[in-house]
Each structure stands twice: as C-alpha cells, then as structure tokens.
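HUMAN: Would you supply a protein with fold tokens?

ASSISTANT:
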Amino acid sequence: MDDNTKTTKSSKTKKRCSFCGRAESEVNFLITGMNGYICDNCATQAYEITQEALGTAASSVTGEKLNMDELPRPIEIKAFLDQYVIGQDGAKRFLSVSVYNHYKRLLQKDSKDDVEIEKSNIVMVGSTGTGKTLLARTIAKLLHVPFTIVDATVLTEAGYVGEDIESILTRLLQVADYNVKEAEKGIVFIDEIDKIARKGDNPSITRDVSGEGVQQGLLKLLEGSVVNVPPQGGRKHPDQKMISVNTKNILFICGGAFDGIEKKIAQRLNAYVVGYSASRETNSLDKNNMMQYIAPQDLKSFGLIPEIIGRLPVLTYLEPLDRSALRAILTEPKNSIIKQYLKLFEMDDVKLTFQNEVLEYVVDKAVEYKLGARGLRSIVETIMMDVMFEIPSQGKKEYMVTLDYAKAQLEKVNMARLQTA
C-alpha cells in the first residue's frame, strides 16, 4: 500500500510540458513558468508561429526604407539588366526610367508643393521568346519594393471558374508578408495581357468572361482605387475577412506577345496598298520588324478596350531576335544556357566543353524553326539528354560535345516537336 502511494506521489510531482505533455526525461530541457512548464520543442514552434502571425519575419526587400541617395539611377538599372538580358535597349530604357520614376513618386509625400506625379503604367509588346518575362524577373532582383509576376490567362470575371482580378493583389500581399503599406508601394508585372483581348474590335454582345470582362475589372486596379482583397486568395465569401489595398501607388507593367498584331500595324500603315506612290512610301518600312511602328490604336484593333489603353500610357516593343542576338544569348549573360550546363557538370566533377561549331549549329536550328530564345534551351536539352543520363555513372572527368554528336542527337528526335516548345 505504501509503495503504491509513493508511486502516485512521484507521478504527480514529475515535471511535464504543459503544452505537449511530454515528461522532462523525454525532452532536452523544460522552461519553468509560474503555473506550468514548456519544453524546448514547443518554445521553438511558438516562436515560429508568432513570427508568421505578426509578420516580423518580413524580408529585407520590403523592410528597407527608400532613400533618394540610395536609389539606383536609370543608367544603373539598365546596366544591371544588360548583365542578364541581351539587346532590347529600347525596352530596357523605358523599364529603367519607369521604375526610377516609381521610386520618386513614393518619395513625393515629402514634397511641399501641390504638384502630384501620376504613375505611368507600361505595356511591353514583343514576339514570344524575346525576353519580356525575363526582363521582369531580372529587374525584380534589383528592386527595393515588393514585386510579383502574375499571369493574365488564369483571370476570369467574378463569379466564374478561374481567379478573380483581386488575386493579383493577393500575390503582392504575400510577397510583402501581408504588410499592406509595403504592398501599396509595389510593382506588379501582368504577363500574357494579350490573352484577355476581346475577339474583335467591336464590343462583345455575348458574355466574354475571360476577355472584355477581365479588362473591365482591371480598370480600377490600374487607375488606382481601394480594393477589398481576400487574404488567402480564392473566392470572396460573405463571412471572409477582407484586406483593403489602395492601388494608387502600385506600378503595373504589362507584357504580351500580341501574336498577329503585325497585320494590324501593316493595315494602318497601308503597307499592302497597290500603286506607285504607295509602294514608294512602304519601301521605307522594315517588313521584318513591323512591331517598331506599333501605336495605341493597334492595341485597340487587337482587342484591348480604349479605357485599358488609356491607363497604360507607356508603350514599348521588343526587337525580334536575329542570329547574332541568339548566339550571344547562348553564352554571354550571367545565367546563359551554356553556363548553366557547365555548372551542372561541374557539380559532378566533370569539365564540359562545347565545340564552337556546336553552338553555331544550335543557333542555326533555332533560326530555322523560329523558336526564339526559349527554343535554344529545348535544342540544347535534346542534345545533352543522353550525356546527362550516362556521365554521372561513368566517372569521367572531361567531356566534349562535338558537332557530329549534336547532329546525331537531333536526328533521333522529331524537330517539329520542339517547334511547340
């Protein structure tokens, strides 16, 4: 009887974590409180939960205070872009100036006069594979404000399957760790903006839930208004708590391929008119780069509504990539395709080299199949697949990719498959 009493007393006095119930012997140590204990594991978890809830783990990008002296100037922004993106000097200049002016707008509140600088949202037009999204991703590395890239193809009008317009701001809030003030200074890149164009120049008489309806919804975001955003994204529900975000100071950069807009430009410039005087005027046009003559009315003809075009005052284009640009893209940027493969093999202690003829061959194929910069990776990946499969197990220290090997590898596959890459 006495032994049972002793056992009961010892179990009562045994220290246990008040949260998880584990005994002192089952954890590294217990922290003693006034009326209980907490183990090291629960303390660590409590710290992480607190950090997440209060947003104190905000990234250094959103936590930095803007200072005019520390802002990167347009020339510095362009120089940074030059390290990663070949060519496209015109688009880089527009982008650099717009981002710099965005910073100055954020600092404008210290100004004592009544001049209010309005934001200049941008639309970048260029064929697929010319570097629109790459420009956006690259400039995000340099910015001192929250930045996010969203895809317009998933957006639909409210109430239909797909994402609501407000999901754009949900992404920005997530990047800013739900710090609303920081998110309201951010930059949003809307990719594939051409995919929400209406099907014709005339107003739609039927419901166009992923086209004109989305454009109408974007108007309030682009111009600047207070929008109620679901914090976790998804559908709006009556009982769901909303976060109010003012988009007045959010800069929007839009990009799109606008496939077929060259025909709209040619029609506007009368490039196909028959006659002596007409042919004399059109001879001066560069038929291989009609995108350089783009104007806001061409976007309207393509299917963007006039209200959207008016809220995207800065219109720039990306040059089509010629052979020399593709050759440079293959090897010169900091994160060029060839440098990536050299790094992959270096991690297996293999020194990889390419014959110069192989690089020329890859570029020739990209030009032949009109694959653009994105297609360069598809071709190199096809050539290197068998090598990447075999080399790690062979123990080789060096490997050279020859022209004969590259040709043999491409002949084994259907090149038409790469054309859809």
Remarks:
- The mean pLDDT is 82.
- Residues 40 and 46 are 10 Å apart (CA to CA).
- The chain has 19 helices and eleven strands.
- The two ends are 81 Å apart (CA to CA).
